[in-house]
Structures are given as C-alpha cells and as structure tokens.
C-alpha cells in the first residue's frame, strides 16, 4: 500500500558513498526534527533522471533551502558506489544527499516500487517527490510514468513550499 500524506515514514537504513567510503544513515538521522525534500528516481545515470529530474533540484537547491528546508535527498534503487559516482558526475556532492536503497527496502515499505523488468532494470522506484516534516509526509507527488518529470519536479515542490 502506498504511503499517504499525513503518515509517518517507516524506519529505514540508507547507504551513502563519500571519499571516506560507504556509510549507513538512518531515517531518524535524516528526518527527525527536520524539514526535508526527498525525491526518488528509477535509476542513477538513466536519461530522464540525469538530464531532467536531478538537474532541476540542483538548479533550485538554494531556492528550496531558502523556504526553510533543511536538506534535499535523492533516493534510487542503486548501490552506494553508483550513487557516489552519480553525485560526482553531476557535480552534486555537498549540495544534495545521494542515497542508496540498493535492495528497494525503503521503496517497497512506502509502496512506491515499480517493476521495470521488461526494460531489464528489475524492481526500481517510481519517480516521485515528497516534502517531509519530522518524519511525516506533508506532500507526495507521484509521476504517472517513469519517463515524466512534471509532478515530481523541483518546480512543483517550490510551489508547495
């Protein structure tokens, strides 16, 4: 069942990659007492994610943070090494957090998985964005198609802030 506005995010563990190596970060560390914009993509380095979705958040980072948001995070069902390489390749290091949900555990727990096996990608995340306050979903924007970046865009989040 898909998480809804007003519901609390489940406990989760994400992986992140930096020059120091791979580390784990909990949902509490990410969301407790904070206002966070989270957006999810079907896959790092995929065309729509890299050319349309992620750039909007990087370009609008300062405007989003100026609205009282503590951090912006992107989640994908990719391993932490891929997410770390994507952060470097997109010049996003230190601007937003690139989080790995490698086994789609969080993605499945919030009911936002999609089977892209026909495209040889397996189970991935639907494309969406959320505004989260102290671990509670305040806005949820799910794309109808993984190839679209309208409903889940940075522009939409900015309007909702």
UniProtKB/TrEMBL annotation:
Family, per entry: Belongs to the peroxiredoxin family. Prx5 subfamily.
Annotated keywords: Antioxidant, Oxidoreductase, Peroxidase, Redox-active center
Organism of derivation: Phyllobacterium ifriqiyense
MF annotations from Gene Ontology: peroxidase activity
UniProt entry tagged with the keyword Oxidoreductase: yes
InterPro entries the record matches: PRX5-like (IPR037944), Redoxin (IPR013740), Thioredoxin-like_sf (IPR036249), Thioredoxin_domain (IPR013766)
Function description: Thiol-specific peroxidase that catalyzes the reduction of hydrogen peroxide and organic hydroperoxides to water and alcohols, respectively. Plays a role in cell protection against oxidative stress by detoxifying peroxides.
Domain Thioredoxin: 3-161
The reaction(s) this protein catalyses: a hydroperoxide + 2 glutathione = an alcohol + glutathione disulfide + H2O
EC class of the enzyme, as a word: oxidoreductase
Organism domain of life: Bacteria
EC number of the protein: 1.11.1.27
The protein's name: Glutathione-dependent peroxiredoxin
